[in-house]
Design brief:
The chain has 11 helices and 8 strands. By secondary structure, the chain is of the alpha+beta class. It starts with 7 loop residues before the first helix and ends with a helix.
Length: 299
């Protein structure tokens, strides 16, 4: 797990009896954590230095936000909260909860506003949202983020993309409320990568299959933001960046197996930290496990 000290909300929870289950930090200014907690008490997030998106994965029915004028009770599992930078919140804690946090640096938020909404970040106010039902955001977290291996180098492109998409979805939710009436929505990006940009990206992937590639790294090769790169790459190749990198890793693994390399070494050289993860992804694309594949090839 990754130490996310320095994030106000993370540090506040770390001082309680809450247990950190998973954590990851990405180069894009996005970090995520999963917590479990079962106690009676209270927690204050004092003027956080970052924005936080929270989802109650299970439990939490006894939690509530204590505001200056009213107390707002939790909706239990599926509750979504947005806690903006600089706004202090006080929470009553009662019972068990499992929750997901996305921590967003101010720089990452401003960049996403420009890229996603084509607006000046200084003109957009991120408002607190407390205990809402947001099926789109909940689904993106459960299916697109929690199902990935946060510690697996082979999953970093997918994880980066999923968290960027989650932030974009949050912005769309906010902009639907705050967009000025005279502001036209930004035109969708339809163009693909140039031939040379695509070649640079593909060469970078081939040279760094063993590394924890992120969508930010690949976007830098193309000279684009991660948001626009992901769309342009899919237009050019028909695949998402994550899918393309995974396919290249598995193709390289097949060649190494054919050459007689040990499966444990193949997994490491192709960017898979664990053998089980390598086996699952290999079977997903090839249809058989690496061991069965080796037997079928007589290697």
């Amino acid at each position: 797990m990754t130490d996310l000290s320095g994030h106000t909300v993370f540090d506040s929870l770390a001082r309680t009896s809450a247990r950190l289950e998973r954590s990851v930090r990405l180069a894009s200014g996005l970090s995520a954590a999963m917590w479990s907690r079962d106690e009676i008490g209270s927690t204050r997030y004092a003027e956080p230095s970052h924005h936080t998106l929270s989802l109650y994965l299970s439990g939490g029915e006894g939690f509530r936000l204590r505001g200056p004028r009213a107390v707002q009770p939790s909706l239990g599992a599926g509750s979504v909260c947005v806690m903006p930078k600089g706004i202090t919140t006080d929470w009553d804690v009662r019972g068990a909860v499992s929750l997901f946090h996305l921590y967003v640096s101010p720089e990452a938020f401003d960049r996403a506003v420009i890229e996603t909404l084509d607006r000046d970040p200084a003109r957009l106010e991120l408002r607190p949202l407390v205990y809402l039902r947001e099926p789109l955001i909940e689904g993106m977290i459960r299916a697109g983020v929690l199902g990935l291996g946060w510690d697996e180098p082979g999953e970093r492109v997918a994880l980066s993309y999923a968290m960027q998409a989650l932030l974009a979805a949050q912005l769309v939710r906010v902009s639907a409320t705050d967009r000025p009436h005279d502001a036209a929505p930004p035109a969708p990006h339809r163009g693909g990568l140039s031939r040379m940009a695509l070649k640079r990206v593909q060469e970078s992937v081939e040279a760094r299959l063993a590394e924890a590639l992120t969508i930010e790294t690949l976007a830098a090769e193309a000279g684009l933001s991660p948001f626009h790169f992901a769309r342009a790459f899919r237009t050019s190749t028909g695949e998402s960046p994550h899918r393309y990198v995974l396919m290249r890793r598995i193709e390289a693994a097949r060649s190494m197996i054919d050459a007689g390399e040990a499966l444990s070494q193949v997994a490491l050289r192709c960017g898979f930290v664990g053998q089980s993860h390598f086996t699952a992804r290999f079977r997903e694309l090839v249809g058989v496990t690496p061991g069965r594949y080796r037997q079928s090839r007589g290697a």
